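call fold(seq) -> tokens
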Amino acid sequence: MTALRSGDLELLRPHRPGYIEGFRHTMEMRADTLLCTRRMYEREGGVVPQRFGPFRAANLFGPDAVKLVLLNRDGIFSNKLAWDQIIGRIFTNGLMLRDAEDHRYHRRIMMGAFKTSALESYLEQMNPEIAARISRWPSGEPFLAYPAFKRLTLDLACSVFLGMTLGPEAERVNKAFADAVAASMAMVRLPLPGLAWTKGLDGRRYLTRYLRELIEPRRKGNGTDMLSQLCRTESEEGHKFSDQEIIDHMIFLMMAAHDTTTSTLTSMMYELAIHTPWQDRIRSESLALCKERIEAGDVAKLLSVSLVMSETLRRYPPLPSIPRLATREFACTGFLISAGTLVVVHPIHTHHMEEWWTNPFAFDPERFASPREEHKRHSHNFVPFGGGAHMCIGYRFAELQIPAILHQLVQRFRWRVPEGYRMPVQQSPISKPKDGLPIILESLH
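ret:
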């Protein structure tokens, strides 16, 4: 790092690495984001600049920096300009790719699909489908948890968001979403046959055609699914979403709803397979309810699920890094960072800082319980759902769906991983097991 004195601040000047060095660093970050961010923080402190060709970046570390960027009280940081560079061609104009009043306008309309009454109706829809899907999971033999959860959460998203059961067509939809997510991290972005980028663009085109055919019938109907609500809802001024806006929002929401939930469920499954006393605690609380399927009011009674979910999100945040683009110059911990810099904060690093967490590399759900409540030591040392105006719009949906699935799972199965197994984690772009997570289920019936 080099810096120039400017008053009481230092102007951040990232060194310019060669393209090979820049490529190598990018691949290392993708392979192990936590390890790379810890190295940067330990060697250079809370502000670490980078440069790749014409692009300037600044990595900011610590909860104060996370708060500065996510709250964005001075309107310095742009979501759209940052995410457009990464996923703009694939998840065009999703809610996360909007700024300021445009973002507030779209979020206000979309919030109707996440109000309490809507969430309760979604849970009612999901419960029988959860039961039907997991009843077909095999017991007594290894099977891969990640693809099983991915299929389950996609089926639930199709039911709740689209109001339909896809059946065999779910495979094509699932592949389209998988290709789209993979393309968002493609290094080579050329429309050449066989490349991840090309497959992602093809996946988006397929999803666009698929959704467009559903819109007009939903505008005329009275369905309670999310697509129907977005087709009919309007602002206080009478504004409605256009067909293309509905498509853009649904593609982004469908991706976020099933990919991030799949990530969290899989990681929870792994931790509970290793830490069996916590699996037993969750099972005891679920059995105490004396019901096969939970209602919205039951979630608060499943304290152990909440603690394990929080600890899992701390250890394996679905989105390990969050980028913004600085639209004007700003100061951070003694450095002056110029406009046009890609500013990145890293929840996965913040969640493992010894300054804020006791023994942060240990699985310890009790850290979230009273009286410890380590997540309250700072307003932004625990940010699994982001924060500020762009806080995940679906976090309350996730807080219903995940307990609903776990409640049924623990009553039907006990599970473990093969002897000596440790899950190899791919942290970027979304946290998931590299091997699909082999799990052995044991039926309790």
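The first strand starts at residue 2 and ends at 6.
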